Amino acid sequence: MIHSTYAELFNPQFVQDPFPTYAALRAEAPIHRISLPDGRGLWMITRFEDVKAALKDPRFIKNWRKVLNPEEQKLMPVMPPVVQLLFKHLLALDPPDHTRIRGMVHKAFTPQLVEQLRPRIQQIADELLDAMLVGPNHTDLLTAYAFPLPLTVIAELLGIPLDQREKFRYWSGLVVTVDPSPDRFTRMAGEMEQFGNYLRELFAEKRANPTNDLTSALVQVEEAGAKLTEQELFSLVFFLLIAGHETTVNLIGNGMLALLQQPEQLNLLRENPDLIRNAVEELLRYDSPVETSTIRWACEDLEFAGVKIPRGEQILAVITSANRDPTHFAAPDQLDITRTEHNHIAFGHGIHYCLGAPLARLEGAIAINSLVQRLPKLRLAVPAHELIWRPGMLIRGMIEMPVEF
């Protein structure tokens, strides 16, 4: 049975293993409507070609204010001022604002510039592994390794000190655990106020004492006044800090879980470290760290893939499902790090394609290869079915990953 409400579908069992449900949706209801707690409809799009088409369809937009009439807008959850300040980021914008703001930062994440970070990323990985090896032979791999590696990289790029690393992790978790309940933003307001205050202090410091980092550069753009408003500055740095590590944390975690569960693939990588780039692409496809797109809205009554979708309904493109579509990938439920099909959409598609994809790929390759080579006895410390996965629809990843080595 394919469920029709959010509560029925997004239960703990589904979160742990969504793949059978997605297979059923692809086969029986590839454009499937579920009812949200507030009564609104959300359409889940699950087939590969449909997901790609939806992510490029200009009729599906990010700004709900352009979709809903004044009466409908009154029914939307009220965003506290600090949440409004932080949530006008790239994933919440349509052109032309999206095009303008993305253009300010995309050059910092080109493959050529990212490759220059390789020695520093390797150094961070080695230092984290050194610390693990001098302690007990068991740890939470996410806390000890998968989380601090990409956070250190993005914090250094942005010029943010790491003395509040655990707060960043907490704030980040709040943001990426997508919860459709009407009072979500009200419940987040206190924590987001702390995050906003932190950024306000950071920007004041960068204005007074600019350094060679991305935040200093963005503050100078904001001060020029023409290209970046204060709200856009807050939202952009907030977005870069969160998005700059969340994908990689779960690429490392989900990827290592897949390898540990399939030791023949793990041994193949250990014996052939040059396979790492290929392996990263397959791990991104096999258990994608970003489970779904962010919400889009139908800006008009429309027909999509033969299904009529009313204006104002929400759209969710399910990336994890698309990357297991058997009409596009041979034996999609099989992990094969020698697979040559690399046209997955783990980083999205269209104008919102992940800005940090080159950085995530490099961090994932270094992190996973270093683990595989330096910890030959690495294994899960608990049965895989006991692992607890993060709730929500956006990010697919574990809360903890206990390992022994």
UniProtKB/TrEMBL annotation:
Q: Which organism is it from?
A: Herpetosiphon gulosus
Name the gene for this chain: vdh
Q: What family is reported? A: Belongs to the cytochrome P450 family.
Q: Does the keyword Metal-binding apply?
A: yes
* Entry protein name: Vitamin D(3) 25-hydroxylase
Organism domain of life? Bacteria
**CDD domains recorded:** CYP107-like
The UniProt entry, under Pfam families, shows: p450 (PF00067)
What keyword terms does UniProt attach to this protein?
A: Heme, Iron, Metal-binding, Monooxygenase, Oxidoreductase
